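Tutorial, part two.
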Amino acid sequence: MEITLSDREFTHFQRFIYEAAGIKLSDAKKSLVSSRLLRRVQARALNNFGAYYELIASGSDPSEVQTAVDLLTTNETYFFREPKHFDFLRRLLDEKPPGSRGFRVWSAASSSGEEAYSIAMLLADRLGDRPWEVFGSDLSARILARASTAHFVEERAQHVPHEYLRRYCLRGIGPQAGTLMVSNELRARVTFAQINLTRPLPDVGLFDVIFLRNVMIYFDDATKRSVVNRLLDALVPGGYFLIGHSETIVRLVEGLPMVAPSIYRKPE
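Running the prediction step on this input gives:
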């Protein structure tokens, strides 16, 4: 029997992912929702999408709820994506080296970890053995588990500087050919945690720089405003807040001057 997603069922899943993650799915995403959730409908031996929605909406199976959230969130990334941000971070560290308290950066939508490890490579290069830390978070437990392995296909590392590849990565051989592993030196400085940015944050401390890139395009204005204000509470006075080049928070957040396109500084 063919299982199809009705307009009414699609509306239910739109509401589900908005309430769970603040993500606003446009009507154009109906086929994507159908293709990503169909295998779960079949795996649970259900007859239709409506029955699957009832299962996750009931909350009776938290692991299935997390699986549905994972399937409906996009995790597209690669190393040193949007390089101007890394150029800015490099200049910042060169011009104003951090003091003895160290330097903390939060990759707040870290996906499978490429952004967090890219930041770590740059900090290791510029700060060496001085105290620094990278914290990565994401909504998806599945994708964070992948990030923690620090194991990637080489094609995602096309933009990694050659010197960084040599110093901070191990190329796979034999059965692992075509992959790379981030070095233990860097992995020791990077931690990951599952965090839903649309909910009150756990105590994560304060950061000098926060990356929140290419995730707000999925939020409506009200969600953007609440997420950004929440993260700004975790940014030190004078710290920097970086968003994706295609995103904007102009007119959404007051008192946060833009110092360069997609780069903002919290007043001291």
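The chain is about 40% helix and 20% strand. In part three we will examine how such features are distributed along the chain.
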